[in-house]
Design brief:
With 200 residues, this protein is mainly alpha-helical. The chain contains 9 helices and no strands.
């Protein structure tokens, strides 16, 4: 019983450190946060943070890994009740935008990951793995639309990169301007451009 309680407390502290790190990284940037501040804010010792994660870089890696896992789970949920490939694509775009709109700190975390990937091999590999899986999952929706006749034959990965670039730029600018945006309306615009183009 004591061992079980000790494990539960340890797990709760681990989660608290991760959540605190995500919050502080999102608010102050990776370089603007120290392990000491993370420990103090989480209400634990610096030694415990180092025991669980080893370094600030490894903390960031774990925060990003958990965030990407959650993102893919939410993506699966968003598309599971959609009937057509177009509906799935639209639901996926809205899901990405909704997450960014509801949690601007997550958007800043993505920007941190892109920047820090240039200086950290572990972060570069993790972010590249995430981007590749993200591209593959979205490209599968494009391929589904092609195979069932909803979409014409295109390079699914290139289209995916274009859609992701559009969405990320919308999110990035909204974050920099500190302006809210309506994910439902923006998702409609993005997917309308994707499916219908901009020519008359």
């Amino acid at each position: 019983m004591k061992r079980s309680r000790k494990y539960r407390v340890s797990k709760e502290r681990y989660r608290s450190i991760l959540q605190t790190s995500e919050k502080l990284f999102g608010e102050k940037g990776y370089q603007g946060v120290s392990i000491e501040e993370i420990a103090r804010t989480a209400g634990v010792s610096k030694g415990l943070v180092i025991y669980h994660f080893g370094s600030k870089e490894n903390l960031l890696v774990n925060v990003l890994r958990e965030g990407t896992t959650t993102l893919f789970t939410q993506l699966d949920t968003a598309i599971q009740d959609q009937d057509t490939a177009k509906d799935k694509i639209r639901a996926a775009v809205e899901m990405y935008l909704s997450i960014a709109s509801a949690g601007p700190a997550l958007t800043r975390m993505a920007m941190i990951a892109v920047f820090e990937a240039a200086y950290s091999e572990s972060i570069r590999k993790l972010w590249l793995t995430f981007m590749e899986e993200n591209l593959n999952r979205f490209a599968e929706l494009i391929e589904e639309g092609i195979s069932n006749g909803e979409l014409k034959s295109v390079d699914s990965r290139l289209v995916t990169q274009l859609v992701m670039a559009m969405a990320f730029e919308i999110i990035r600018l909204a974050s920099l301007r500190q302006e809210p945006f309506h994910s439902h309306e923006v998702a409609d615009e993005v997917t309308n451009i994707l499916f219908d183009g901009i020519s008359r």
